[in-house]
Amino acid sequence: MRLRRRPDMDYQVVFAAVEKTCEDNLSVLSGPSDSPLSSVAERLMVCMRQIQEHGRAMGPVVAGFTAVFHHYDLDAQTIGNGYRSLVKIVLSCLLHILHKARYIASNYHSAFFRAEHNALEMEAYCSALTQLRALLHLAQCIMDNNELGQLFSLHNHELTARFVQEYSSMHKACFYGRCLGFQFSPALRPFLQTVVISMMSYGETYGKQQSGLGLAALSLLTSGKYVIDPELRGAEFERITQNLDLQFWKSFWNLTENGLFTGFNRMASRQVQVNSTFTVPPLTLRLPLASDPSLSVSVGPPVAHWGPGPVHMRLISYQLREGQDSEELLALSRADPGTRMPWVQKLPRSPSLLIHFHGGGFVAQTSRSHESYLRSWSKELGVPVLSVDYSLAPEAPFPRALEECFYAYCWALKNCHLLGSTAQRVCLAGDSAGGNLCITVSMKAISTGVRVPDGVMAAYPATLVTTDASPSRLLTLIDPLLPLGVLAKCLNAYAGMEYQTVAPAAGSGTLSALGRDTALLLSDLTQGASNWIQSFLDPGRSARSTRTPSQTVSPLAAGATARDPACLVQYPEGFEPLRSECRAIIRPLTCPVIRNPFVSPLLAPDALLKGLPPVHIVTSGLDALLDDSVMFTRKLRAMGQPTTLTVVPDLPHGFLSLSQVAKETEAATAACVARMREVFQLEEPAETQPDEAAAAEESVGPSG
Questions:
Q1: Dist. CA 133–CA 127, nearest whole Å
Q2: CB burial class (10 A; 0-12, 13-18, 19+) of residue 281?
Q3: What is the pLDDT of residues 159-202, one digit of tens each?
Q4: With the C-alpha atoms ordered 545, 549, 551, 552, is the resulting torsion angle positive or negative?
Q5: Residue 244, strand partner residues
Q6: How far apart are CA 279 and CA 313, in angstroms?
Q7: Dihedrals φ, ψ of 356, to 5°?
Q8: Which residue has the higher pLDDT, 254 or 515?
C-alpha cells in the first residue's frame, strides 16, 4: 500500500499504516545482540516503540479535532484554521516517519545501509512527533477553554501564560535540524535550509568590527559545518531564537538591503522604467472631507516621539507616466537630475494607484527588500506603486509608523498627479506588519474624515499584536521563519516596551554600515574560505569546538522529559514533552498599548471598523498568524463589511518574498494580484489561458 500526501488523507489510514510499519521494523531489528549493528538496532527499536505509543495516544485527539474543526473555518468554502493546521502537520510528520521506517525495514540488512544516518533521521522525527503530541494537548486545552468556533483566548490570561511558559521550556531544535521545513511545500525546503544556515553562520560573526557585506561574505564561507551537521544547526538555531537579540535579527534581515542582493533581485525580476526614492517634507496637508468635499480637514505630519519629520517613499512604475518625471517630484527625489528619460514615451496617468506598506515585524526591512514582487505587480496591474519606508521599532514604536503611513497616504491622494495616477481607484497593499498598517491606515482615514481607500489587500496580516493563545500560534514552536521568541520581540518593540529615544540620523540609511575597504573584505573572504575548507576536511572539528555538552547528546538519550516543577500544563500520565537546555525569556505583553485598536484591529470596536473598504486577506494554512486572519475576517463579515479570505496551502509566513522560489508561491502571489484586480475593477489579462487559471485556482484553494 502506497500512501501519498493529500489534503483529504484519511487520518485513520495513516495511523494504522504507521502502527503496522513500526511492528514490521521491530521484527526486522530484533536480531542477535552481538551483531555489528546491535547498538543502532536498539536505538531504532526505542524510536519505533515511542512512535507507536505516540500514535496510539494522538489518534483519538486527531479524531476529536477532525470531527469539529469545520466549526472553526470562516465558512464551508473557506477551509482553514489552526486546528486543521496542527492535524495536517501531524499527518505530514507521520508520513515522513512512514517513508523512513519502510526504507529501514527493506534495507536494514543491505550492505549499503547507512546505519548511523538512518538512526539519526528516525530519532529526529521521533522527537518532532513527541513535541507535536504536546502541541495537540495544548490545542485541546485551548478548545476546551473557548466557545465553539472561537480560536483565541482573548481574556484567558492564565491559558496564555501556560502557552508562553510551555514555549519557553520546550525543546525545539529537532524542528530546525533534520526535520527542517517538513510541513511546507517540498520546493521550499532547500530555501529554508539556506536561510537557517545563513543565520547560524552570520551569528558567529555578528558583533565583530566588520561591515555588513564583510559579515555576509564570511558567514557564507563558514557555513559548511551547519550543512554537514544538522544537529548542531538545530541546537544553534534554537539557542539564537530562544532569547533573541533584536538588533541581530534586524541586522540579519537587513542583509537583503545589500546592493549585491538587490542587484541579483533586480536582474531576476521585472525591469521597470521608474524606480526612484524621494522624501516628503513634514508640512501640514489640507484634504477634502469625504462626507462633504466642499469642506476640508488638516492632516499634520508625523510627530510621535521626536517631533515632525519627513517620510521616505519609493515610486515604482513599469512604464513612465505623466508626472513621474516632473520637476516637482524630482525636487523631492535624491536621484541625479540626469536620470530623467526624455526619450521615453510617456503614457497618460493611470486611473489606479497602489500604495504599499512592507512587512518585517515593524522592526526590519524597507521597500528595497520587497522590490521584486512590487515590480511584477506594477507590470501585471498596469499601475504605479508607491511603497512607504516608515520608521522602524524599537527606535520608532507605535504610533510613529502608523502616523508616517497615514501621512504618506494623504500626501499621495493630494499629489497623485506626481505619481502618474489620477487616483480614481486606490488600493492599499501590505504583508504581515504592512497588512496591519493597511487596515489601521484605513481606520485612521475613517476617524479623520478623509477619503478611505477603495480596497485593502493584506497578506498574512498581524491583526492581534499580543501573545494570546490560539491553535495556529502554537506553530511558532516549529516555524523557522516566525518563532514565538522572534514574534514576541517584534511585538514588544512595536508596543514600545524596548523603546530607545533615538531620532533617525539625517541622510543615514539601511546601508550606511556597509562601507568597507576592499583589502579588509578580501581578508574576510580568505579567513572564511580557510574555515570553511577546514570544516570539510575535519567535519567533527567545528562541531566539537562549538558544541556544549548538552548539544552532544540527543534529547531522547538525555532523558530530557523530566517533569518541570513549575509546569503549568498537566499532560496525560506518563507523557512529558522534551525540554530545552536553554530556556527562552519572553516578556509578557502587558502594556495597555497592545490593546489599542490601532495596534490590534481585531480588538477594535465595531464603530471604528464600520465604513472600512473591502478587505481582502490572503494567508497560508500553515501560517502562525492564520487564526488572526480567520477571526478578523469573521468579525468584519458579522458587521456586514465587505471582506474575503483566501487560504493557500503548504506555505510559510512571508511567502510574497518567496514568489520566485516555487510554483506554489507564484500561485499564492497570483491570488494577491487577483484581489487587487478586484479593487481596481480590472479584467483578468487576455493572455491567461483557462487551463492555467484553473491550475492556479486549484493550487490556491477556496476563497470567501
A1: 10
A2: exposed
A3: 888 888 888 899 999 999 999 999 999 999 988 988 888 888 87
A4: positive
A5: none
A6: 6
A7: -120, 135
A8: 254
Report CA Rg, the chain. Answer: 26
Band the pLDDT of 396: cuts 50, 70, 90.
very high
Find the mean pLDDT for residues 262-271: 57
pLDDT tier for residue 90 given thresholds of 50, 70 and 90: very high
Which residues, including other chains, have CB under 8 Å from residue 481's CB and lie 6 or more apart?
A: 192, 195, 652, 653, 654
How far, CA to CA in Å, does 101 sit from each of 115, 198, 331? 13, 31, 67
- Structure-block grid coordinates of residue 614: 473591502
Predicted pLDDT of residue 223 = 67
pLDDT tens digit sequence for 466-505: 888 899 999 999 999 888 888 888 988 999 886 655 555 4
pLDDT of residue 168: 87
Identity of the residue numbered 368: R
Question: Dihedral sign, CA of 72, 5, 90, 193?
Answer: negative
673-692 burial, b at 16+ Cβ within 10 Å, e below that, comes to bbbbbebbebeeeeeeeeee
- What share of the chain in percent tops pLDDT 70? 79
Using CA atoms, how far apart are residues 700 and 237, in angstroms rounded to an integer? Answer: 31
pLDDT at residue 559 above 70?
Answer: no
Q: Which pTM value belongs to this model? A: 0.86
> Helices 115-145 and 230-242: crossing angle, nearest 10°?
30
Strand 311-317 relative to strand 385-389, pairing: antiparallel
Kind and range of the H or E run holding 45: helix 38-68
CB 131 within 8 A of CB 577: yes
Say what the pLDDT of residue 582 is. 80
449 neighbors 297 (Cβ within 8 angstroms): yes
Burial 308-324 (b: 16+ CB within 10 A, else e): ebbbbbbbbbbbbbbbb
**Residue 583 pLDDT:** 80
Write the single-letter amino acid at 293.
P
Q: What residues act catalytically?
A: 432, 623, 653
Q: Is the peptide bond before 394 cis (omega within 30 degrees of 0)?
A: yes
Alpha helices in 108-211 (DSSP H): 115-145, 157-169, 189-205
**CA nearest 486: which of 653, 257, 305, 659?**
653
> Cα 317–321–322 angle (5° rounding)?
145
- Distance separating alpha carbons of residues 356 and 432, to the nearest angstrom: 12
DSSP 481: S
What residues are paired with 321 via a beta bridge? 347
Helix (H, G, I), strand (E, B) or coil at 34: coil
Residue with cell 510627530: 303
Q: What order of strands is seen across the sheet that includes strand 643-648? A: 274-280, 311-317, 385-389, 350-357, 421-431, 455-459, 615-620, 643-648
Task: Report which of residues 287 and 241 the model is more confident about.
Answer: 287
What was the pLDDT predicted at 406?
98
Q: How far apart are CA 694 and CA 696, in angstroms?
A: 5
What single string gives the DSSP state of each residue in 415-450? TGGGGTEEEEEEEEEEETHHHHHHHHHHHHHHHHTS
Residues 6+ apart with CB under 8 A from 405: 357, 388, 390, 437, 441
Length of the chain: 704
157 contact partners, CB below 8 Å, separation of at least 6: none
Question: Per-residue pLDDT tens for 605-639?
Answer: 999 999 999 999 999 999 999 999 999 999 999 99
DSSP assignment letter at 681:
T
Classify residue 25 by its DSSP letter: H
Helix residue ranges, H only, 578-625: 606-609
Integer Cα distance of 657 and 386 in angstroms = 17
Name the pairing type of β-strands 285-288 and 296-299. antiparallel
Q: How confident is the model at residue 354 (pLDDT cuts 50, 70, 90)?
A: very high
